[in-house]
C-alpha cells in the first residue's frame, strides 16, 4: 500500500504558478513526507554549438540547469520557509517522460504529481503527449492536478469496471477502492467516496439483424449484473448503497457527468497502460474518460504492470 510520503512533482517549465507543487504540499501537510520538485530540460542548440568544445558545451548546460534550479527554488520559497521538505532536482535529458519515470523508479517515489492544462471551453482539461506517456507508462500512481481549488463538501469518485468480461477488472476494482479509502483516511478526510460504474445499452444493429432479440430484456439483465457486482464490491468495503451509482451509457459520458453531479474534487480510475498495437486495436476506455474530465485525476495501474521504461544508468 502506497504511503503517499515520497512525492515526485513534475515541474511545468512554461509557467510560474505550479498547481502540482501546491497539491503536493497539501498532501505533505496532512500526511507528512517529502517532495522532490523535478524538471528535465533540453535545448538542442546547446548540443549543436560546434564552435564550442565539449567542455564549454557542458559548462553551458550546467549554467542552464543552475538557472532553472534557482527558478524552481524561487517558486517554492514560501513552502521552504514554512519548513516543507522539498528537494529540487534539474537534469539535462531529451525525453522528459523517460526522465520523469526513471526518477520515479530510482527514487522509489510512491506518487507522481503533474499539472493538467485546461481549456477555456467549460473548464475541460487538455492532456499533452507528455501527460499520456506518464499515464500509460509510469509504474507509480499519477495525480494529474487541475488548477482549481477542491470544492467544499465535494467527493472522491472511484470509476470501477463491473463487466465480467475480463477477470483482472475485479482485482483492479478492489485495488482502486482500497487505495482511495487509504487516501481519504490519510489526506482528504472530509470527502465522501462514491463508486461509479457505467454499462452500455444494446447496439441498435443487433435488434435490426435479429428480430427475436429484445433490447429491453438485454439491458435489464445487464443492469442487474452490474447492480449485483456493485453490491458485492460495496459490501466488501462497508460502503453505504447511497454512495454507489450504476448508470446506463458509455463510461466516457457517464463518469465525467457523475463527477460534475457529485462535485468531485478528484476521480480515481485504473489505467491498463496499453501502448502500441494493443492500444490501437483494443483501445483504452479509461483514456476516453480522461479526455472529458473537469477535475483532478488519480490514475492507478493494476498489479503486475510492467513498466516499459528501463531505470537510468548511474551516470
From TrEMBL:
Q: What does this protein do?
A: Required for resistance to DNA-damaging agents.
Name the domain of life: Bacteria
Identify the main location. cytoplasm
Location within or outside the cell: Cytoplasm
Please give the Pfam families that the UniProt record associates with this protein. Usp
Q: Which NCBIfam families match?
A: PRK11175.1
Q: Which UniProt keywords apply?
A: Cytoplasm
| All residue ranges annotated as the UspA domain in the record | 4-146, 176-301
Q: Which CDD domains match?
A: USP-E_repeat1, USP-E_repeat2
Keyword Cytoplasm among UniProt keywords: yes
- Mind telling me what this protein is named? Universal stress protein E
**Which family is this protein grouped under?**
Belongs to the universal stress protein A family.
Which InterPro entries does this one have?
UspA
Q: Which GO terms describe its cellular component?
A: cytoplasm
UniProt lists the gene as uspE
Q: Which Gene3D superfamilies match?
A: 3.40.50.12370
Query: Species name for this entry?
Result: Providencia huaxiensis
Signal peptide positions (record): none
Q: Does the keyword Cell membrane apply?
A: no
Amino acid at each position: 500500500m502506497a504511503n503517499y510520503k515520497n512525492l515526485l512533482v513534475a515541474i511545468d517549465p512554461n509557467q510560474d504558478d505550479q498547481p502540482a507543487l501546491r497539491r503536493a504540499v497539501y498532501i505533505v501537510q496532512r500526511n507528512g513526507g517529502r517532495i522532490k520538485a523535478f524538471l528535465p530540460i533540453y535545448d538542442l542548440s546547446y548540443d549543436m554549438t560546434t564552435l564550442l568544445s565539449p567542455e564549454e558545451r557542458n559548462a553551458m548546460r550546467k549554467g542552464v540547469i543552475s538557472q532553472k534550479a534557482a527558478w524552481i527554488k524561487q517558486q517554492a520559497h514560501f513552502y521552504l520557509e514554512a519548513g516543507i521538505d522539498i528537494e529540487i532536482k534539474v537534469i539535462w535529458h531529451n525525453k522528459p517522460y523517460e526522465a520523469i519515470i526513471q526518477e520515479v523508479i530510482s527514487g522509489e517515489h510512491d506518487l507522481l504529481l503533474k499539472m493538467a492544462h485546461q481549456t477555456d471551453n467549460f473548464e475541460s482539461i487538455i492532456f499533452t503527449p507528455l501527460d499520456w506517456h506518464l499515464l500509460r507508462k509510469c509504474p507509480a500512481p499519477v495525480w494529474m492536478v487541475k488548477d482549481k481549488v477542491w470544492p467544499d463538501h465535494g467527493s472522491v469518485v472511484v470509476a470501477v469496471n463491473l463487466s465480467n468480461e475480463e477477470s483482472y477488472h475485479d482485482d483492479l476494482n478492489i485495488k482502486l477502492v482500497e487505495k482511495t479509502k487509504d487516501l481519504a483516511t490519510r489526506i482528504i478526510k472530509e470527502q465522501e467516496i462514491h463508486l461509479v460504474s457505467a454499462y452500455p445499452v444494446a447496439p441498435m444493429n443487433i435488434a435490426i439483424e435479429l428480430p427475436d432479440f429484445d433490447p429491453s430484456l438485454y439491458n435489464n439483465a445487464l443492469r442487474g449484473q452490474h447492480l449485483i457486482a456493485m453490491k458485492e464490491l460495496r459490501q466488501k468495503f462497508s460502503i453505504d448503497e447511497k454512495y454507489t451509482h450504476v448508470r446506463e451509457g458509455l463510461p466516457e459520458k457517464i463518469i465525467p457527468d457523475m463527477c460534475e453531479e457529485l462535485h468531485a474534487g478528484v476521480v480515481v480510475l485504473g489505467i491498463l497502460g496499453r501502448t502500441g498495437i494493443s492500444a490501437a486495436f483494443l483501445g483504452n476506455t479509461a483514456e476516453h474518460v480522461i479526455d472529458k474530465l473537469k477535475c483532478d485525476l488519480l490514475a492507478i495501474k493494476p498489479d503486475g504492470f510492467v513498466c516499459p521504461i528501463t531505470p537510468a544508468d548511474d551516470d
